[in-house]
Sequence to fold (960 residues):
Amino acid sequence: MLYHVFMDVKIPRDLPAEERADILAREKAYSQDLQRQGTWRHIWRVAGQYANVSILDVRDNAELHQILSALPLFPFMQITVTPLLRHPSAIRGDDS
Amino acid sequence: MLYHVFMDVKIPRDLPAEERADILAREKAYSQDLQRQGTWRHIWRVAGQYANVSILDVRDNAELHQILSALPLFPFMQITVTPLLRHPSAIRGDDS
Amino acid sequence: MLYHVFMDVKIPRDLPAEERADILAREKAYSQDLQRQGTWRHIWRVAGQYANVSILDVRDNAELHQILSALPLFPFMQITVTPLLRHPSAIRGDDS
Amino acid sequence: MLYHVFMDVKIPRDLPAEERADILAREKAYSQDLQRQGTWRHIWRVAGQYANVSILDVRDNAELHQILSALPLFPFMQITVTPLLRHPSAIRGDDS
Amino acid sequence: MLYHVFMDVKIPRDLPAEERADILAREKAYSQDLQRQGTWRHIWRVAGQYANVSILDVRDNAELHQILSALPLFPFMQITVTPLLRHPSAIRGDDS
Amino acid sequence: MLYHVFMDVKIPRDLPAEERADILAREKAYSQDLQRQGTWRHIWRVAGQYANVSILDVRDNAELHQILSALPLFPFMQITVTPLLRHPSAIRGDDS
Amino acid sequence: MLYHVFMDVKIPRDLPAEERADILAREKAYSQDLQRQGTWRHIWRVAGQYANVSILDVRDNAELHQILSALPLFPFMQITVTPLLRHPSAIRGDDS
Amino acid sequence: MLYHVFMDVKIPRDLPAEERADILAREKAYSQDLQRQGTWRHIWRVAGQYANVSILDVRDNAELHQILSALPLFPFMQITVTPLLRHPSAIRGDDS
Amino acid sequence: MLYHVFMDVKIPRDLPAEERADILAREKAYSQDLQRQGTWRHIWRVAGQYANVSILDVRDNAELHQILSALPLFPFMQITVTPLLRHPSAIRGDDS
Amino acid sequence: MLYHVFMDVKIPRDLPAEERADILAREKAYSQDLQRQGTWRHIWRVAGQYANVSILDVRDNAELHQILSALPLFPFMQITVTPLLRHPSAIRGDDS
Fold:
């Protein structure tokens, strides 16, 4: 089941550089791991913003929340979730 | 080059049923033709709304506008365009 | 799986009275049928507004959309969907 | 009498970890106690957000405010209250 | 129990003059009747707008909705309800 | 002359407890003094919020501002002023 | 006593040309009459919009409303009122 | 050439009292000097807010910005500029 | 003197096709004439919208309004004006 | 390919003066370098605000983001990107 997730990142200026680097490294590993498993279907950067648009493929709302709330950047993100479904005009097998 | 396009549809109540059916049939054919060509990469329905989230892969802003403004439903849509690019954490070959 | 659905109704003034009455009767029957099946878990009127807050229990996003878009009042509603999940402090068996 | 309450939590980063843990433990106990009494009818987590949707069953506006303003997390919450009532299409005995 | 109610009126231009006059007369009588009973505690015009701020004293959310939805102008109003309670600094006996 | 005043209070967390207690005590005394004089006609708490709705009866805009800007909590409030007048349907002598 | 009034005009397309011309002529005469009396202190057009910013000098909220609600264009305007007073840095005799 | 300028002031709490007093004194002198020159045509306080509405008469956009950005309070203000022109109904010689 | 002008076009569906074509032809001629004179410095289409961003170079606010309000599409546009000036980092001779 | 970019700058008060001066000098050099290359086509200051409107001419979304995210002021800016294209009424060779 697919969800559209918009993630807007605001890292506070006073976060120590090392802590920041560590969080970003863990965020990247976490995201790539989920991409490899097929759960995090797509991730795109929004031009001009420290933000991304993602498509997640999960079992249900609970799994979606479990994944998002475990993001290393979660405390510094504003997240907007939009539930998606197959569009009647879609022709790609994986658009649902 | 990828763009995130949100299309919100409001068909006026007084549009004759036949004209409406004709527009919807042409919209579907137009969208599926572009999907087959790989230009309209993804299309998803938004749960509970007469709206969709789409990803288009076009040469430039001009081609994007030419495609969107030629949509049979264009006069009845509120469209929001967000330019995307490859995310540094993306691993899929086709996420850019 | 639970969803919070806010439905705001605006019936156009020029809808013939008979058509209006027919839609409202079908809307009520449709809602009560789904309530009896346990799909439409809760429905409450919002004080001072022609609007309701509902909790739906469905299999997935697709079933949610299928149910909402089949509402007789769907063309006259502004619908907002919020995906829910069990709260870690919940104690009721049916709050998920 | 039922009220729809949306609670959006923003705990400041500089709150000492111990104070934070203590507040969260007291919040959970407080909420579960009121759930057991039947006052806090429902509580759901909103997917992707540190927020919840709750239904409270209280005597009047004053009792509602007394309960909400005594929440251990109250200073860190943005709360929105919506008064509810029985919907004319409701069939469940406890939807009012 | 007190509620703050903001009523914003937009009467459509094509409402026949007679129907309009009739609705306004019934609205006035209805409001004054409830004022005499003490239910509609206060009503003030907002300067420069076809709108009013009112304070209603009712038994519960259900009675509030029953009163508001029976307003002759209800179909032409945007209504916002805010539940009130006695302020800890209030000294007037009737501010609750 | 009546004004509707909405006061939304946000006291910063780092305000010393003593200073906070002192400000709140002075705010209460100031408000009650003006209530006794009949200037601060009504004050109600908004359910679930650290906010109040008030009705002030003053000579003119200047007196209103003099009173509001002298509130001990003024630096910590977001204030919205709405000028009111007698509603043509009002029957109470003191609704103007 | 001064008020800042923003008037945004939207005349419906289907208003007969003659009625429109008549309303505009009466609006102009009405405004100029009040300007001559010193009540309508200032009126400026907003660049690029069918809107104006005005300063009115009236006895009280009631007189302000009486004047605004009698504007021939009142049914076609969105009006926003802001109560003003003398600024402590003002030096002009007539800025209050 | 006239501009409508809305200035909303938010002085941070941690600004040292002396610095604050100095800024306010310089702001007042600066404003009064421009008022005497006829550049700052009007200034009014907004009731209940630390904000003002001003009318400036300058040569062009560049002079307007030079004046506003040199305000001692500029770093603590949210400024909104609206270009004005003579209204066709204006009768005062100085309303343009 | 430069102004940034955003023009959002909404032509009503019931405008006769001939009238529409005539307005569009006159709009184009009007715009191109002003472009040739150097007054309408730039005009760009916004991707996915029936809207444009323009830069106009005029003598003052009054000339700007005279030009905009004479646009054949003016009654069907929502226009937003932003006054511009030379940026301190600009190097192009014509960016002011 | 052209993009409209609005940049709103908010430099935190506690940024050391030297760091601030250094960032501003690098920002200016960076912008002027891109202007000389023809990439940063236009830059204008918005009157009364610490903000600018710019037109960038880049190969694609990715280059746009690479340029914007490398701005020395990027961490202190709110950036809004709007993709542009040649307007059908444009006559200037470089308006696309």
Remarks:
- The radius of gyration of chain H is 14 Å.
- The mean pLDDT of chain H is 97.
- Chains H and D do not touch (no CB pair under 8 Å).
